[in-house]
């Protein structure tokens, strides 16, 4: 489970690479999933992106699986 941290702009989360709870930078990115240009405007989805500030490992997860 992610928790807020007293550090600036970060959350403490478990890092698979480090095997520890470490400071992560977390953001939401809108990504286009369609490769077809004519459908690109309808295929944008939000992704949660988390980057470990210790080792640099990044992970992303689609937030809307409807």
Short description:
This protein is 0% helix and 52% strand. The mean pLDDT is 84. It has no helices and five strands.
Instruction: List the secondary-structure elements in sequence, H or E.
Output: EEEEE
* Biggest sheet record: 5 strands, antiparallel
- Beta-strand level of the residues, as a percent range? over 45%
Total of DSSP H or I helical runs spanning 4+ residues: 0
Mean pLDDT: 84
Uncertain stretches of 5 or more adjacent residues: none
Number of domains: 1
Share of helix, binned = under 10%
The total strand number stands at 5
What is the end-to-end distance?
23 Å
Description of the molecule:
It is a single chain. This protein is an all-beta fold. The chain has one domain (11-62). Helices cover 0% and strands 52% of the residues. The chain contains no helices and 5 strands. The relative contact order is 0.25. The mean pLDDT is 84. This is DUF7835 domain-containing protein. Residues 1-66 form the DUF7835 domain. InterPro entries: DUF7835 (IPR057157).
């Amino acid at each position: 489970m992610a928790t807020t941290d007293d550090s600036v702009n970060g959350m403490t989360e478990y890092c698979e690479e480090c095997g520890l709870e470490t400071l992560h930078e977390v953001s939401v990115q809108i990504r286009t999933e369609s490769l077809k240009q004519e459908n690109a405007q309808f295929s944008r989805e939000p992704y949660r992106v988390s980057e470990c500030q210790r080792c640099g490992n990044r992970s992303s997860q689609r937030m809307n699986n409807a």
